[in-house]
Amino acid sequence: MSRDVMPPPEPPEPPEPPRRVARLPVRARTGRLLVLATVFVCAACGLVYELELVALASYLIGDSVTQASVVLSVMVFAMGVGSLLAKRLRCRAAVGFCLVEAVLALIGGCSAMVLYASFAWFGGARYALVAFSLAIGVLIGAEMPLLMTLIQRVSRQDAGGTVADLFAADYVGALVGGLAFPFLLLPRLGQLTGALLTGAVNAAVGGALVLWLFRRDLSVRSRWLLLAVSLAVVSVLAVTVVFVDDFERAARRAVYGAQVRVAVQTGVQEVVLTGTPGRGPVDLYLDGRLRVSGRDEQRYHEALVHPAMAGRHARVLILGGGDGLAAREVLTYPDVLSVTVVELDPFVVRLARTDPALSALNGHAFRDHRLRTVTGDAFHWLRGAARGSYDVVISDLPDPGITASTKLYSEEFYGLASRVLTDGGRIVVHAGPPAGRPRTYWTVEATLRAAGLYTRPYRVTGRVSGFTGGPDRDPSPDGSAAPRDWGFVLAARTPPRLDLGAGTRRPRLLTAAALRAGAADVERLRVTGLPPSTLVHPRYTG
């Protein structure tokens, strides 16, 4: 007779260790709200650091798409690393969180100044950008696990509800930080002061949460240590704010030279004007790029304007050109009836109209009754312009290697520009240096052809500065590292003739022979088979 053998009973699972409950000076519900409020503030500060890195990197290095991709991808990776590293701090979550916030506030708050200093005195900021993205990402990633531990010590809500509350506060804080940066911090405080004050708020809120709400869980030694660290960080950031203006002036002198006369952050860009007549060339910088140089702007603007004026030119449209220098060349033709300048930044026009040195350089073009200015984005303005309104369209815009300018070098843009041309009208485009960036230059030419226009590429040499820069800069005082040529494309609905206009004042520097030689010379650099650039598929690289 057999008997079934019953398996031995499984040993009972060990009970979960009791959750450590903080001894709070307030009710648990109030404590929970305070933790969530801290999550909100920390998320807002974290996103400000992130946007600050993206904005400053785009300004200092160029190509905002690439810089945003580098910063965001590195930071997201680093946040994952920080979350893993925070597991070691969960046993002392309050102390760990306070220290993480203090270090994050110091690094994030000073990041803009260090990046700017690296660019001003060492000529580059790429490595510093990656280092700050990693460091800030690791510290931001460590916040959430520590806050999760702290909020679970405040109340006994289930883990799912706790996670939902934390992420809700985190996302709302990120929204507020993301909106505060472009609409409040950047225009009112600037990049450097905005980052420093954000760091001070970050350190103060993180330290206050731990030192007040969780003070009964801290030893006396820990309390004094955290208080000293938090006060030290806030003090360093506050003192640095006092010296920000002196730092900016010193950095500007390092970047632009000693003769900075105007330095203004407008709602569009940073505008810096250097030099005075008789003491050196007048230079105009827009967002750190040399846009006008008195050393060689005459050669550039003659080559840009006069070939397009070889034909009917009663009505002329200048896209960009708020400095008035292209208009100066156009207005030498007495049979020009009207000139319209469409400029995005009204401050540039005001500066070109009122600054003695710059207005002298542009021949006081804005005093001419034939000239009118329009403030607006060239792309959107063209969409509302009447068909067949202009005989000549002059595109005097930053190089397409700057991401913000890419849409102004697209097939759609040239289609709009072609629409406002009269029969027989011509458009001329500044397309960057063909020798230095041939793919960019020939992509502009291919894009004009894709818009249904016939093209005549040409270039002029003799460039001595980094003037009219896209990604190219002028790192040496004599311009030795700058590109040596400018590239242009003349286009029309019928094959255009490349010649000089018949103005009463012929170009001083550009001759018809040099123009024809430049057209023949640039063909030897031709890159074939390039697709056009469109709004949804931009092809330009810096």
UniProtKB/TrEMBL annotation:
User: Which residues hold S-methyl-5'-thioadenosine?
Assistant: 269, 343, 377-378
What positions constitute the catalytic site? Answer: 396 (proton acceptor)
Extract the PROSITE patterns matched here: PABS_1 (PS01330), PABS_2 (PS51006)
User: What Pfam families has UniProt attached to this entry?
Assistant: Spermine_synth (PF01564)
Location in the cell reads: Cell membrane
EC number from the UniProt entry: 2.5.1.16
SUPFAM superfamilies reported for this sequence: MFS general substrate transporter (SSF103473), S-adenosyl-L-methionine-dependent methyltransferases (SSF53335)
Q: Which HAMAP family match?
A: Spermidine_synth
What CDD domains does this protein map onto? Answer: AdoMet_MTases
Q: Tell me the domain of life.
A: Bacteria
Q: Where is this region: Disordered?
A: 1-20, 465-484
UniProt membrane topology term: Multi-pass membrane protein
The organism named in the record is Streptomyces sannanensis
Known pathway: Amine and polyamine biosynthesis; spermidine biosynthesis; spermidine from putrescine: step 1/1
Q: What's the gene? A: speE
**Gene3D superfamilies reported in the protein's UniProt record:** Vaccinia Virus protein VP39
Principal place of residence? membrane
Question: Tell me, what does this protein do in biology?
Answer: Catalyzes the irreversible transfer of a propylamine group from the amino donor S-adenosylmethioninamine (decarboxy-AdoMet) to putrescine (1,4-diaminobutane) to yield spermidine.
Which residue ranges have biased composition labelled Pro residues?
Answer: 1-15
Q: Which PANTHER family match?
A: THERMOSPERMINE SYNTHASE ACAULIS5 (PTHR43317:SF1)
Q: Which residues bind spermidine?
A: 301, 323
Q: How does it assemble?
A: Homodimer or homotetramer.
Give the family this protein belongs to, as stated in its UniProt record: Belongs to the spermidine/spermine synthase family.
Span-the-membrane segments of this chain are 33-61, 67-86, 93-121, 127-151, 163-186, 192-212, 224-244
Which chemical reaction does it catalyze?
S-adenosyl 3-(methylsulfanyl)propylamine + putrescine = S-methyl-5'-thioadenosine + spermidine + H(+)
User: Where does the record place the PABS domain?
Assistant: 240-478
Q: What is this protein called?
A: Polyamine aminopropyltransferase
